[in-house]
Write a structure and sequence with these properties.
This protein is an alpha+beta fold and about 400 residues long. It has 10 helices and 5 strands. It has a 5-stranded mixed sheet with strand order 1-2-3-5-4, covered by helices on one side. α3 packs antiparallel against α4, α6 packs antiparallel against α7 and α9 runs antiparallel to α10.
């Protein structure tokens, strides 16, 4: 690819100065590839070889910025050099210009130069041999090949290796970037999953503790206070056990990122029993059969969070929990009495609905929650296909 540089590269300047000085030393010593008596030497002044030498050396600073211009001027200088006694350094500098034009020029230009030099090499050997009927004339083509095609081919090989190395570097950078993105996404997903687990495991127990402690403090009835303290103790013990289990998951380095005993829909009856102990009038309609484990866990957590919300926000009245399976979908419905404007009986983070919605979305399902007349309804439709574990 062409490189537009504001000023010549230092190495190119060194090549130009070094070549010019070397060529002048050879000229001063009288070392030339041709003698004055040679019929090809049409320009005889002693200083004549210096002119193409200076022009070719002046083209070297252009070898990276404008390589085609440098090669064109260098070709004219080499042509002029052939009608003088010549200078070996001029030829060497010209081969470098051919090499640089292929290496630093555009891809189309590099291909064109390689093709032209190859054709000149073939024609330079075949045509003179055919005209002169002398096999020794093939050496002309060899000379042209060494002068033009060999540096062009070398530049093409180096260019391919350079481009391959650059492509490999870009692939490595892209791979590293994708790996970092995957790692970040994995960490974010794991944090969200653990936040849902922590909320669902503990929020129910803490809400019950808050509500019953309020009742124990507000009612001057020893029996009521005793019952409330019993519920508080039960929920405290269960909540502590859940916390210990979650901490064990976080500290476990074996790769097991799920609880030792994953909740299933068989445990919904236990959830209902606990909700009744906390004062809710819960009714369960269970019409499901065996479902995949990810769906079981999501449905269990949605029911658990819905009962927790009902404990904190529901108006007086029954709470209906329904599990129904049809058309390859597990349908979860939880309804409770609702009155607009009723305040919460326990503090909350407000993240429960978000967690339920995320669990349904991870399985490709649908989730809705909101008032329907005098009821608050939670609806979740979970496909019975294997999906990502919430």
């Amino acid at each position: 690819m062409a490189r537009a540089l504001s000023r010549p590269h230092r190495d190119d300047l060194r090549i130009a100065v070094g070549g010019l000085l070397g060529g002048m030393v050879l000229w001063a010593l009288g070392i030339h590839p041709r003698v004055v008596a040679d019929p090809l030497v049409l320009w005889h002044p002693a200083w004549a070889p210096l002119l193409p030498l200076v022009v070719t050396a002046a083209c070297e600073p252009l070898r990276r910025s404008t390589p085609r211009v440098g090669l064109f001027i260098g070709t004219l200088a080499l042509t002029l050099d052939t009608v003088t006694q010549g200078n070996v350094v001029t030829v060497i500098l010209y081969t470098d210009l051919v090499y640089a034009a292929v290496l630093y020029g555009s891809l189309a230009s590099a291909r064109r130069i390689c093709w032209i030099t190859c054709m000149l090499t073939v024609l330079g050997g075949v045509v003179p041999a055919a005209l002169l009927r002398d096999a020794h004339a093939l050496l002309i083509g060899v000379g042209i090949g060494i002068l033009s095609f060999a540096p062009a081919a070398t530049g093409w090989v180096v260019r391919n290796h350079r481009d391959a190395a650059e492509a490999a570097r870009l692939r490595a950078e892209q791979t590293a970037l994708l790996a970092e993105m995957d790692r970040t996404q994995a960490v974010t997903a794991e944090r969200a999953r653990m936040a849902r687990e922590l909320h669902d495991m503990v929020a129910n127990h803490l809400s019950a503790i808050a509500i019953h402690s309020t009742a124990a403090l507000s009612l001057d009835d020893p029996q009521t206070s005793r019952d409330a303290l019993a519920v508080i103790r039960e929920n405290s013990v269960e909540g502590l056990a859940e916390m210990r289990r979650l901490i064990g998951i976080l500290r476990d380095s074996s790769g097991d990122v799920e609880p030792a005993v994953t909740p299933t829909l068989d445990g919904v009856a236990t959830l209902v029993k606990g909700a009744r102990a906390n004062g809710l009038d819960v009714r369960l309609a269970d019409g499901h059969s065996r479902v995949p484990a990810p769906v079981e866990l999501a449905a269990y957590r949605i029911v658990q969070e819905s009962l927790t919300n009902a404990l904190k926000h529901a108006a007086e009245g029954p709470v209906e929990v329904a599990l129904r399976q049809d058309d390859g979908t597990l349908r979860v419905r939880v309804t409770n009495a609702y009155r607009a404007g009723d305040g919460s009986r326990a503090p909350g983070s407000g993240s429960g609905l978000t967690g339920m919605r995320e669990r349904a979305a991870l399985l490709g399902g649908r989730f809705e929650a909101g008032p329907r007349g005098q009821l608050w309804e939670v609806r979740a439709d979970l496909p019975l296909t294997e999906g990502e574990t919430p």
